[in-house]
Design a protein that fits this description.
By secondary structure, this protein is α+β, with helices and mostly antiparallel strands. The protein has two domains: about 5-115, no CATH class; about 120-250, no CATH class. Helices cover about 60% and strands about 15% of the residues. The chain is built from eleven helices and five strands. It has helices spanning about 30-35, 40-55, 60-65, 85-90, 100-120, 120-135, 140-160, 165-180, 185-190, 205-225, 230-250, and strands spanning about 5-10, 10-20, 25-30, 65-70, 75-85. A five-stranded antiparallel sheet has the order 1-2-3-5-4. Helix 1 packs across helix 2, helix 8 runs parallel beside helix 11 (about 230-250) and helix 10 (about 205-225) packs antiparallel against helix 11 (about 230-250). The radius of gyration is 22 Å and the shape is elongated. It starts with a strand and ends with a helix. The model has no long low-confidence stretch (mean pLDDT about 85).
Length: about 250
């Protein structure tokens, strides 16, 4: 745990922790419960709710764990915590007017996701709306959407070569990133002061272009060399990233 800090929700303190290895925020469940139900004894409320959910076989409660957080007396004590996904699922089990906006939002997100599965074009339209709403320029948005397409072409190529989603994707992505920028993805995010935020959403246009060049080159080299092992894919990733690294040095 890299920090133990307090964030405010409707002027109420919520203890939070950022887990660097997981790149995940965790929230004190008791603090959130206290805000939503306005209970004088949120600890007892959570204890009873936790027991009821366990009896119902709720997996979210089972998967929640504890972290040491600073209590009101200043001492560190183990506290039940939940990440964002777990917290949103728990909120659905709390009968509270304050929880209602969260529940409505979850229902809306679920409906939109189903619509996107039926009509994938909606995903692109909503991405445009989201980026525009955040104040990005039209030129940057077009570049970002192109970057998404290039990434998809690369991952399709990796799938053909037997690269596994998850850890292996991440390793190859880091190889590409190191080769063109000199930093792994996590180091790049740290350099930009990011945590959960998407790295590419915080790149300047030139960074996006160089990253696209690295990934597009990697995909093309892979098509030519047709690597059969993970180590061969790793070498291809380094070679593709290095091409964009030479372009970066030339620009600089």
């Amino acid at each position: 745990m890299t920090n133990d800090k307090v964030q405010l929700f409707e002027n109420q303190p919520i203890r939070t922790a950022w887990i660097e290895d997981e790149e995940e925020w965790y929230f004190s469940i008791v603090d959130v419960v206290g805000v939503l139900v306005e209970s004088k004894d949120p600890t007892s409320y959570w204890r009873k709710l936790k027991q009821r959910l366990k009896e119902e076989g709720n997996e979210t409660v089972t998967n929640c764990h504890a972290l040491k957080m600073t209590a009101q007396d200043g001492k560190k004590r183990f506290t039940d915590v939940a990440n964002t996904e777990q917290l949103l699922r728990l909120i659905q089990s709390i009968p509270s007017k304050k929880a209602e906006p969260f529940k409505m939002w979850l229902a809306q997100v679920g409906r939109e996701r189903i619509e996107e599965v039926i009509d994938p074009e909606l995903t692109i339209e909503r991405a445009l709306e989201t980026y525009a709403g955040k104040g990005y320029s039209r030129e940057w948005i077009n570049q970002r959407l192109q970057a998404i397409q290039v990434r998809k072409e690369l991952t399709d190529e990796w799938d053909k070569r037997g690269v596994k989603k998850g850890a292996e994707y991440a390793i190859l992505t880091d190889e590409i990133s190191k080769a063109w920028s000199g930093m792994t993805t996590r180091q790049y995010k740290t350099f930009k002061g990011l945590k959960k935020e998407n790295l590419r959403d915080n790149m300047f246009t030139l960074e996006l272009v160089l990253n696209m060049l690295a990934e597009a080159t990697t995909a093309e080299i892979s098509k030519q060399k047709q690597p059969e092992t993970f180590e061969e894919n790793r070498l291809v990733a380094t070679e593709g990233g290095a091409a964009a690294g030479e372009a970066r040095i030339s620009v600089e």
